[in-house]
């Protein structure tokens, strides 16, 4: 499921995504998404869209926590 999620989100949103923790736990994962933009609002909107898309497309997954940081 994670490979599909990563591949499809890369294609749909043109973002970078990586599993960054819990690599040895098959039922748990920590994913990191990143994108570049010169517009803070666009970046925030895009990353929130990714979360909503994951929830709608993969209802079997449970997002426990999300944190959007714009630098």
What number is the mean pLDDT?
Answer: 93
Apparent shape: globular
Structural class: alpha+beta
Give the neighbour order of strands across the main sheet: 1-2
Helix content: 40-55%
- Measured by DSSP, the beta-strand proportion falls in 15-25%
- CA-to-CA gap between the ends? 30 Å
Order of helices and strands: HEEH
Could you tell me the radius of gyration in angstroms?
Answer: 12 Å
Number of helices: 2
> What low-confidence regions span 5 or more consecutive residues with pLDDT below 50?
none
Largest sheet: 2 strands, antiparallel
Tally of extended strands?
2
Give descriptors for this structure.
71 residues; alpha+beta; two-stranded antiparallel ribbon; 2 strands; 42% helix
Could you characterize what this model shows?
This protein is α+β, with helices and mostly antiparallel strands. It contains two helices and two strands. The protein has helices at 2-13, 40-57, and strands spanning 16-21, 30-34. Strands 1-2 form a two-stranded antiparallel ribbon. The mean pLDDT is 93.
Write the SSE topology.
Blueprint: H1 2-13, E1 16-21, E2 30-34, H2 40-57
Antiparallel strand pairs: 1-2
Short description:
With 71 residues, the chain is α+β, with helices and mostly antiparallel strands. It has 2 helices and 2 strands, in the order H-E-E-H.
């Amino acid at each position: 499921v994670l490979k599909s999620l990563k591949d499809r989100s890369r294609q749909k949103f043109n973002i970078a995504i990586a599993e960054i923790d819990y690599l040895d736990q098959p039922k748990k994962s920590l994913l990191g998404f990143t994108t570049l933009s010169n517009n803070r609002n666009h970046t925030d909107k895009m990353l929130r869209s990714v979360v909503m898309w994951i929830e709608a497309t993969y209802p079997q997954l449970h997002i426990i926590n999300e944190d959007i940081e714009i630098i």
